């Protein structure tokens, strides 16, 4: 068993990396590198451009894997590490400093420094305190809230050094850190690296410049993917290095599962950066939102209109009764005179088991008088069954009975408006008399107000008298009812009742000199049409929601492509695949949640406008919640693909992306 102190922190054995293969020519960039680096060393790897330095650094930093050979980190073969474990190494062990700084453009200096700490699960206050202290130490105390483009190259590089240090930065991997800087800023950065080396950090510096390399304690030269020179560990450093190495032992595995608090912090972070991303592309975000808003709003408005129409028919059905049919005499289709509906016919119909009630009706506008008040009113002569058949209660007094009907009793019940006309000022009409035609009738009741209703007749403006009294005293020329209202025994028996009535009458009359109107069936059919229409409208609206979702996907795919480099930076600083997935999912869900909320509001406004035009509209909470939930699910579904695409990016490829 070797002790930790004997182990080099980093050991490369015959490391090879080839690119290409298949269609492309095979390029061997690293051709069998073997190298030990101990904790606490300050190593410069120097070589001409194209010699494979960056490739080597990507492998050292676990951003890329070698094609063959071994990379032992603290004695463990990195080849056996999964993506999460590699992310953990990048987060906890390494800190990268790149030639092009690789800062996230939309974040401030301090936020950039905080990124690795976010993925390490540090809480917000500690994170920002650490970042501030580091920036302060690197002379950027007053630049914390500047974005990268408001900083000079030297300042940006110092920000990236602070970022490399925020999780400890035990091993700093610097790839041409001075390459893009003027000599003064370059010297500044080198001084910083030397200081860090002094403080015990392991520094691996990559450069093509021998003068820069000379500032390290150990210089390794590579050419064409092979080590051609190695100055070796300086004498007298052995002891110190062993001590460093003893401290450099890393835990075997990442801590199992982040704490609940860290999870929430990460989500908050994702929401924040999502918000920033949306805000940066306001025009595009707005258009995408519009798609979702229209989708959600139309689902809500369409369903509200459909439900309004359905309810309206339902009320009509309720007031007329879903079981009501109308029957009257009519000339037969084959020609000849109309038939005569007799009392015996009615009795035969009433005795059918499918029929609950039969009411013959005569009705016409007739002159009605009280004192010197006269009015032409529709006088409805029906039976005692009228209130029940029409589901119509009385407001005062009573309705006449079957007995009073057969006794030809001269009684009258007033509609709401008729009562107001003849008895203005609220006087009690019960017991008073009206002259209908030429016959006096006694008022015994007032019907409840029915209100506005479709149909030509205004029921509130009628008066109701018994059928037989009407025939004897008012409609004297009339030998048969104008029409007969028939109520089936149940909603399910309407059709059976219609057939039975037809059969009985055909038998009695010998020919079809009558007609039966089945309003219930008609309304039923209308109701079904309306329902089908609601479904259709809802479906169209749902399709528009899906179209909105596709818009979200489109924008998210674009976002992922635009921010490939940011994804690479996040991965290099320790983001796991699921962190990236979460960030982009959060972004698309945030988009659809916002769109959903606006859509609900827009749907309510659109429905409200319809109400102004007297279109019946009934909002349903279920539809609203449903549409909102659909929008959010759409965001998850259509956002998943782009988010997964982002999460699966290869860190090296992403970093090189634009
Ligand atoms: P250095 O950093 O020393 O300038 P690199 O490691 O960046 O060199 O590149 C070494 C060689 O590998 C170069 O010739 C480069 O063209 C090649 N190379 C780097 N990345 C790829 C890649 N993804 N595919 C093909 N060739 C690559
Ligand atoms: Mg390079």
Task: Describe the protein's architecture and organization.
The two termini are about 45 Å apart. A hairpin with a 2-residue loop joins strand 12 (about 355-370) and strand 13 (about 375-380). The protein is α/β, with parallel strands linked by helices and about 650 residues long. The chain folds into three domains: about 40-65 and about 85-235, P-loop containing nucleotide triphosphate hydrolases (Rossmann fold), CATH 3.40.50; about 270-315 and about 525-655, no CATH class; about 325-525, no CATH class. The model is unreliable at about 250-260 (pLDDT under 50). Adenosine-5'-diphosphate binds next to strand 1, strand 2 and helix 1. It comes from Zoogloea dura. GO terms for molecular function: ATP binding; ATP hydrolysis activity; transmembrane transporter activity. It is a multi-pass membrane protein. InterPro entries: AAA+_ATPase, ABC3_permease_C, ABC_transporter-like_ATP-bd, ABC_transporter-like_CS, MacB-like_ATP-bd, MacB_PCD, Macrolide_Exporter_MacB, P-loop_NTPase.
Quick structural summary:
With 658 residues, this protein is an alpha/beta fold. It is 48% helix and 20% strand.
Tell me the strand order in the biggest sheet. 6-7-8-3-9-10
Q: Structural class given helices, strands, pairing?
A: alpha/beta
Number of strands: 20
Query: What is the alpha-carbon Rg in Å?
Result: 45 Å
Q: Percent range for helical residues?
A: 40-55%
Protein name: Pyoverdine export ATP-binding/permease protein PvdT
Subcellular location: Cell inner membrane
Membrane topology: Multi-pass membrane protein
GO molecular function: ATP binding; ATP hydrolysis activity; transmembrane transporter activity
């Amino acid at each position: 068993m070797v002790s930790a102190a004997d182990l080099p922190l980093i050991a490369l054995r015959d490391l090879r990396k080839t690119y290409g293969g298949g269609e492309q020519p095979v390029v061997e960039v690293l051709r069998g590198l073997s190298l030990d680096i101990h904790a606490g060393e300050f190593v410069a790897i120097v070589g001409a451009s194209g010699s494979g330095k960056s490739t080597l650094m990507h492998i050292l930093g676990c951003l890329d894997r070698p094609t063959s050979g071994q990379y032992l980190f603290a004695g463990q073969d990195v080849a056996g590490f999964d993506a999460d474990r590699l992310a953990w190494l990048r987060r906890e062990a390494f800190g990268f400093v790149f030639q092009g700084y690789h800062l996230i453009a939309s974040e401030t200096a301090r936020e950039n420094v905080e990124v690795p700490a976010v993925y390490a699960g540090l809480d917000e206050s500690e994170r920002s305190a650490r970042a501030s202290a580091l920036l302060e130490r690197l002379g950027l105390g007053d630049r914390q809230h500047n974005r990268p483009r408001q900083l000079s190259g030297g300042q940006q590089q110092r920000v990236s050094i602070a970022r490399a240090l925020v999780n400890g930065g035990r091993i700093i991997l610097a790839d041409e850190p001075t390459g893009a800087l003027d000599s003064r800023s370059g010297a500044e950065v080198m001084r910083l690296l030397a200081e860090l080396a002094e403080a015990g950090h392991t520094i691996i510096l990559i450069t093509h410049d021998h003068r820069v390399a000379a500032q390290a304690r150990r210089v390794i030269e590579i050419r064409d993917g092979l080590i051609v020179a190695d100055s070796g560990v300086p004498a007298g450093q052995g002891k110190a290095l062993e001590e460093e190495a003893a401290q450099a032992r890393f835990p075997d595995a990442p801590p199992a599962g982040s704490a609940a608090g860290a999870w929430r912090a990460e989500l908050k972070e994702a929401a924040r950066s999502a918000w920033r991303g949306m805000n940066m592309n306001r025009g595009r975000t707005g258009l995408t939102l519009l798609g979702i808003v229209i989708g959600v709003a139309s689902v809500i408005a369409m369903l509200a209109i459909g439900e309004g129409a359905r309810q309206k028919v339902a009320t009509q059905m309720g007031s007329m009764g879903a079981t009501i049919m109308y029957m009257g005499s009519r000339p037969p289709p084959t020609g000849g005179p109309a038939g005569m509906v007799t009392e015996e016919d009615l009795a035969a119909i009433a005795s059918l088991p499918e029929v609950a009630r039969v009411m013959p009706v005569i009705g016409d506008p007739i002159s009605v008088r009280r004192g010197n008040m006269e009015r032409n009113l529709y006088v409805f002569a029906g039976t005692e069954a009228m209130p029940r058949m029409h589901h119509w209660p009385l407001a005062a007094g009573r309705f006449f009975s079957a007995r009073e009907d057969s006794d030809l009793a001269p009684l009258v019940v007033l509609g709401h408006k008729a009562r107001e006309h003849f008895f203005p000022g609220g006087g009690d009409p019960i017991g008073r008399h009206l002259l209908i035609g030429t016959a006096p009738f006694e008022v015994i009741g007032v019907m409840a107000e029915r209100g506005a209703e479709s149909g030509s007749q205004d029921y509130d403006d009628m008066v109701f008298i018994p059928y037989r009294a009407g025939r004897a005293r008012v409609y004297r020329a009339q030998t048969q009812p104008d029409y007969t209202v028939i109520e089936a025994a149940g909603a399910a028996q309407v059709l059976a009742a219609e057939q039975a009535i037809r059969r009985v009458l055909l038998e009695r009359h010998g020919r079809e000199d009558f007609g039966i109107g089945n309003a219930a069936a008609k309304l039923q059919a209308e109701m079904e049409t309306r329902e089908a229409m609601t479904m259709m409208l809802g479906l169209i609206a749902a399709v528009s929601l899906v179209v909105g979702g596709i818009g979200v996907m489109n924008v998210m795919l674009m976002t992922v492509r635009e921010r490939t480099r940011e994804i690479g930076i996040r991965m290099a600083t320790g983001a796991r695949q699921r962190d990236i997935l979460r960030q982009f999912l959060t972004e698309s869900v945030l988009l659809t949640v916002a769109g959903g909320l606006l859509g609900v509001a827009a749907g309510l406004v659109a429905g409200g406008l319809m109400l102004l035009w007297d279109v019946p509209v009934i909002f349903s909470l279920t539809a609203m919640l449903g549409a909102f939930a659909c929008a959010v699910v759409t965001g998850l579904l259509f956002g998943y693909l782009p988010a997964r695409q982002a999460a699966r990016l290869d860190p090296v490829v992403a970093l090189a992306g634009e």
